[in-house]
Specification:
DNA-binding, 12% strand, alpha/beta, 10 helices, six-stranded parallel beta sheet, 49% helix, homodimer
DNA sequence: CCATGACGATGACATTTGTCACGACTGTCG
DNA sequence: CGACAGTCGTGACAAATGTCATCGTCATGG
């Protein structure tokens, strides 16, 4: 199987390459660190396209969603597997409505190879936490628009930052002049938005996201 | 004030430089990414030595403790401020018995500048969690030797790894074929060894440590 | 042999964390 | 104006987490 990797973090790119290659799952045709390059490289040689494209969402400039949009416009058969840090409801909704073949969380790297195989086999793959994030029943109301709130509000980011420093709720409340209950509620909201199960996951993902 | 920074992670080096410089606390004379270079650079120009040396402990080759030992051997007046990831009891004990002027945890970067000022003023600075790690009463018994158990056992590392992936105790227990109670105990032990307060701190520090 | 330490387990306990259901205030936008 | 979103607060409750004391096995090394 042939693949290509798009991620603005060179560390992620190379470790993904290693994993994919070492597992014998696929050969890596090329990598890119931004959406524009990705689109260009994908269009370049129609005869030698990746079977599955691993695509990060958060990138400077043209992001993964936009890149996917453009690629799918030309090649309806493109198999795109999003591999990103957050299980943001808005991102997931957009990715899937675009026609992506999968949405994985960077957290569990080991699942990349099997996911690629599944995608090759025509399946759609969602990371464990991704599915939980979406409420399965028909998303009535809310027509087609989805301005849910990509990412977090400023206050939420403040709190996420402190969580990622290992502070407990009491300390966070003290530092932000809030009640402990509010902090708990805020964090609960953040976890819900990002499809995470606990503060540790938030801390880990947050650090990963900041390190850009 | 003049300073120098020693850390094997270039990202840490540069961000520390930025912080120290931007805060107007000190100018950075040089940086090094290993103990040997640090000793060499320190000895090089006795007339233009850093007032405070920021020193990481975990580095390939000659580590921070060894470097400090050698530097202090020649210059008893050297002011060394350890800045490292773990509040490991053994590390702290060694650092302080060597005559270091401080021991900070990388976690809270903002405290670096004030700590340097305090050290310049002749004080010894310990990060908040560092002090808690040491039992204040006379450490009777155990003479001078300290082979506590630098770092963690293999099993403990297994668990730390899973914690840093955001798994909860139940999942960790399941994945390692342990009881949940054992997992709790193991984590409790790890936190104690490293002077940390909760799993989130462990996760954050662990990721930081692995990213080398 | 015996001490030691890593490993695993249990049960009890206190604390922290996460959820839920509320109410209230604010500023913005159609 | 009303709808709405973001913010902050409370109280109650369930679940997860961390700590302790205590026990047993096993391997290793003096």
């Amino acid at each position: 199987m042939k693949t290509a990797i798009v991620d603005d973090d060179p560390i992620v790119c190379s470790s993904l390459s290693t994993i994919v290659t070492a597992s014998g799952t696929a050969e890596v045709l090329w990598t890119a660190d931004n959406g524009d390059d990705a689109v260009r490289l994908y269009e370049q040689d129609p005869a030698n396209r990746p079977d599955v494209l691993l695509l990060d969402i958060q990138m400077p400039g043209t992001d993964g969603l936009e890149a996917a949009r453009r690629i799918l416009q030309r090649d309806k058969a493109a198999r795109i597997l999003f591999l990103t840090t957050f299980a943001d409801k808005s991102y997931i909704a957009q990715a899937l409505s675009l026609g992506a073949k999968g949405y994985l969380i960077k957290q569990d790297v080991k699942s990349v190879a099997p996911a690629m195989l599944a995608v090759m086999a025509g399946q759609v793959v969602l990371g464990s936490r991704v599915l939980d994030t979406l409420q399965l029943p028909g998303n009535e109301a809310q027509s087609g628009r989805q301005q849910l709130s990509v990412a977090l509000s400023e206050r939420e980011r403040d709190i996420a930052e402190l969580v990622s420093q290992g502070l407990d709720n009491r300390d966070i409340a003290h530092q932000l002049f809030l009640s402990e209950g509010t902090v708990r509620n805020r964090i609960s909201g953040i976890l819900d938005k990002l499809g995470m199960a606990n503060r540790t996951q938030l801390a880990v993902a947050w650090i990963d996201a900041q390190r850009r």
